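Q: Start with the shorter request: fold the first protein.
A: Done. Sequence, then structure:
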Amino acid sequence: MGEFTQTATVTQQETVVQPYIRYDPEYVRTIPGIVKIVCIVLNLIGFICIEFSYFSYRPQGSFFNTVAMLGFWFSGIMLVFYLFHVCEKFHKIPWLKIELYFCVAWTLLYMIAASVAAATSIGAFQAAAFFGYCAMVGYGVDSFLKFQAVRAGEIAQGSRTVHVQQQQTVSTLTA
């Protein structure tokens, strides 16, 4: 009378981590590590440009410095977490998604902060704007790398393998 098809998909996921804190300097030689260090340096240079200006008290400078220092501290803490494998120890926390959201937000905030600083006629603010635009590009690259990793189902440190098996059953019904 008819044919009945049933498909079952079985997904197995294996996560391999070493759950102890240890120092690993190899992270700074990876592309995400280099991008993170570049962002930290650019945050600091932009902050210094504004802070050593006579006009650092102006709202444009305060906003730029807030963006720069929050970026500096977040990126610096994440760098330490990666260097000491804290992200691997706590692999159940979605580190890549947290970093992805932060990097996207900081790309946009740096675009605004650098544009506001560049619109002034103060030389130090314009220098800071240059480093702000560079940091914007750095955070944009980091956003792209994190997006690709999240999309691929990776974890921040360690390894995850996914095995997908499909089983199909065909039954014939007759009357």
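Q: Next, the second protein, separately.
A: Sequence, then structure:
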Amino acid sequence: MDTFFISHGAPSMSIDETVPARHFLKSWREKVLPEKPKAILVVSAHWETSNPSVNVIDGPNSTIYDFYGFPKPMYQLKYPAPGAPALAKRVVGLLKGAGLGPIKEDKARGLDHGAWVPLMFMYPDSDIPVCQLSVVARKDATYHYEMGRALAPLRDEGVLIMGSGSATHNLGAVGPDGGPIPSWALGFDTWLTEALLDGRYEDVKRYEEKAPYAKKAHPYPEHFHPLHVALGAAGDDAKAELIHHSWTNQSLSYSSYRFNKA
């Protein structure tokens, strides 16, 4: 099973049919991954904890509306995918085995919008077991890459490992759709794609010093670290592929990537 990083953009994609990435995600099973995963592990930017945490849910996942001031229909959407307690326990064991503990098991938390918004288009039947893994506050990209490396065995077990964040994420610098893309957003996004396709993964791990406009594109790293987990899970010799590229809000990149073994 290949690993993926999906730029999920604004939660309004859930109801806004004009967002190009929405149509990309709806074509997922036909054009990207026809093979149905046995389970899905989502590393979402919208769950940030002091230590790695996994939701261990026996029964359907609840739908978390972790956004404010959006249209009422968004708060009526549901994605009751079954939990994946066996996978969650496996994740705990792999992370502990790699010395990345302690690991918290959260038995109440459902799926945040970084998980359920893309998944509702990718797998609309909500019939695949899903669990989430948090990103870890105050840990760097290399740490998250090592988290991914620890999770690599899941790929051979039919588990889809998906990082969900954003290629660029500076909500204080967004603008109207259709406006010119700022040089900082275009510069970082272009650098990221070139670095990944060239296999310069050490540079991607050290993006804060290697990438142009890194701090402008990601004032905080939580939307970028899911990429490092997905990349680490694919392995050092993985090949990267750009599978989608679009923009909304002038500076919000939806660049999404597939990582597979050479």
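Q: Describe the second briefly.
A: The longest strand covers residues 39-49. The longest helix spans residues 183-197.
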